[in-house]
Write a structure and sequence with these properties.
- With 109 residues, the chain is an alpha+beta fold.
- It is 22% helix and 43% strand.
- The chain contains 2 helices and 8 strands; from the N terminus they run E-H-E-E-H-E-E-E-E-E.
- The strands form 3 sheets. The chain has a 4-stranded antiparallel sheet with strand order 2-3-1-8. The protein has a two-stranded antiparallel sheet with strand order 4-7. It has a two-stranded antiparallel ribbon with strand order 5-6.
- A hairpin with a 6-residue loop joins strand 2 and strand 3.
- Helix 1 crosses helix 2.
- The longest helix is centred in the N-terminal third of the chain and has 13 residues.
- The radius of gyration is 18 Å and the shape is elongated.
- 17% of the residues are buried.
- The chain binds ligand 2BA.
């Protein structure tokens, strides 16, 4: 078994979750916030049999879209002088960011 953490954009969370449910893949859903943009996103945690991992990758490739998001210029205080990050800056976000870990044990007690 593998444990997959999948970070997706909020806009794609429902369609990804629906597709996982439709494929019979159990998941847990967390609200999360990306450290760079400070935008809300969604993290899905899935315990997946090894022979289903590739089909889960495909599901996220198909359902999680890439989008351009804008990082607005933000005032940053350095000592007593206010500096400005040059902006706005455009960044490409997504589809999904996946972390795949081995599962030592999976128990329901
Ligand atoms: P954020 O941290 O808000 O990052 C949003 C997007 O900003 C990233 O998209 C990437 O294109 C860009 N970005 C992030 N850090 C950057 C940096 N230091 N300099 C320039 N651009 C940067 P994605 O790579 O698709 O990531 C989407 C979300 O996935 C991230 O949202 C974060 O929540 C998560 N994520 C990505 N890589 C991660 C990692 N190594 N560890 C934990 N979470 C990660």
């Amino acid at each position: 078994m593998k444990l997959i953490f999948a970070v997706v954009q909020t806009e794609d969370a429902e369609v990804c979750a629906d597709a996982l449910a439709g494929a019979g893949v159990p998941y847990t859903r967390f609200a999360s916030i990306g450290g760079f943009l400070a935008h809300e996103n969604v993290t899905l945690m899935l315990g997946v049999a090894e022979d289903r991992v590739e089909s889960v990758f495909e599901l996220f490739r198909e359902k999680a879209r890439q989008r351009t998001k804008t990082l607005q210029a933000a005032p940053v205080l350095a000592d007593t002088s206010a500096l400005l990050i040059p902006g706005p800056v455009e960044v490409q976000v997504g589809g999904a960011t996946l972390f795949i870990l081995p599962v030592e044990q999976f128990l329901r007690v």
